[in-house]
Design goal:
Layout lengths: L16 E6 L7 H15 L3 E6 L5 H15 L2 E6 L1 H11 L6 E5 L5 H5 L6 H10 L1 E5 L2 E3 L2 E3 L2 E5 H16 L3 H14 L4 E7 L2 E7 L1 E5 L2 H7 L12 E6 L4 H12 L9 E6 L1 E6 L7 E6 L2 E6 L2 E5 L4 E5 L10
Parallel strand pairs: 1-2, 1-3, 3-4
Antiparallel strand pairs: 5-18, 6-7, 6-17, 8-11, 8-15, 9-10, 9-14, 11-12, 12-13, 14-17, 15-16
Length: 324
């Protein structure tokens, strides 16, 4: 079994790179992005195979095909896109034994930023040529991968609103912020959740349950359990039932990195929890968000640390790339 604290290892300099570029992620022109990637790799003489995905519904199928090819050839799987694209590629790669590379193209890029991967496409591509494979922790929700976060309740609704705003106004952080405030103003549903941890069950009422697997995101909003991710744990965040004005104030506190200090916020670290929402009779599925993607999962909902790590190509700690 591989764990997230295993020793990093070098990559065969001749290993072919199997790259999936999702042209729906990020503001950059797809042709220019492809030109940069192929230009850097061709100049270095590195074998590579690049697939462009224009239809998001085909991403998971292409991801599986790409991983199969990479495994057969002893190659590296590379995701070029935002957090959702990276998630889909990681889902297919986890457990395959293939190293995993990232060329970030999204709006927030929490995963790549956490691991010191450059935002510049050319720099990130050059990193693929020299980086070692470092094991990184993966979260699972009902066996669905999440690298940044997973959630139910208000947060999935926020993501849906944010995507609608982005389609109308463009992919910018300010647009995402405005969409978040709109969600808070209109979301009033409270969840009743039964959370089992280490044989004990507790009941909470909350508008949302947020589970983080990204220390950078948790640090930015001020959750004290952020450092515990380095110890093989995940962090859960839940809000107590509050009014709209208090909810808006909590959003402001989160923007200033002070959410964890609020009395109406509860957070705790764990390796595994099972969540059973109280649902109407006959309802068995719950809307869950994983790294910005929405899915309906069958209850109960299990959150846990994956037994295997993702072998990520990233800068060595303390290197120039890692400090950039």
């Amino acid at each position: 079994m591989t764990n997230a604290h295993a020793i990093s290892g070098p990559i065969d300099a001749a290993a072919p790179l199997f790259i999936v570029l999702n042209v729906g992620s990020g503001p950059d022109d797809a042709f220019k992005t492809r030109e940069i990637i192929e230009g850097v790799l061709s100049e270095a003489g590195r074998e590579h195979h690049l697939r462009v995905v224009a239809d998001a519904t085909r991403l998971h199928g292409i991801a599986r095909q790409t991983v199969d090819e990479a495994r057969t050839r002893g190659g590296v799987v590379v995701a070029a896109g935002g957090d959702g694209t990276i998630n889909a590629m990681a889902q297919a790669t986890l457990g395959s034994g293939c190293p995993f590379g990232v060329l970030p193209q999204g709006t927030f890029n929490y995963f790549s930023r956490t691991h010191g991967i450059p935002a510049d496409t050319a720099d990130a591509t050059r990193l693929l040529l020299t980086a070692r494979a470092h094991p990184v922790q993966v979260g699972l929700v009902n066996d669905r991968v999440f690298l940044v976060n997973a959630s139910l309740g208000m947060y999935p609704a926020l993501l849906e609103d944010r995507e609608a705003f982005k389609k109308k106004f463009g992919r910018h952080r300010l647009v995402a912020l405005v969409a978040g405030f709109v969600t808070v103003l209109h979301h009033h549903r409270q969840l009743r959740l039964f959370i089992e941890q280490r044989g004990r069950t507790r009941q909470i009422r909350t508008p949302t349950l947020f589970v983080g697997n990204n220390s950078l995101q948790l640090e930015q909003i001020g959750i004290p359990e952020a450092p515990l991710l380095e110890q093989g744990q995940l962090a859960a965040v839940a809000l107590r039932p509050v009014g709209t004005l208090t909810m808006l104030w909590l959003a402001v506190r989160g923007a200033f990195g002070q959410l964890g200090e609020a009395e109406s916020v509860t957070s705790f670290a764990f390796r595994r929890i099972v969540v059973q929402p109280a649902m109407p009779y006959g309802t068995r599925h719950v809307k869950v968000a994983t790294d910005g993607e929405i899915a309906w999962l069958r209850a109960p909902i299990e959150f846990r640390v994956a037994p295997e790590a993702l072998l990520l190509l990233k800068p060595d700690p303390g290197s120039a790339a890692d400090l950039s």
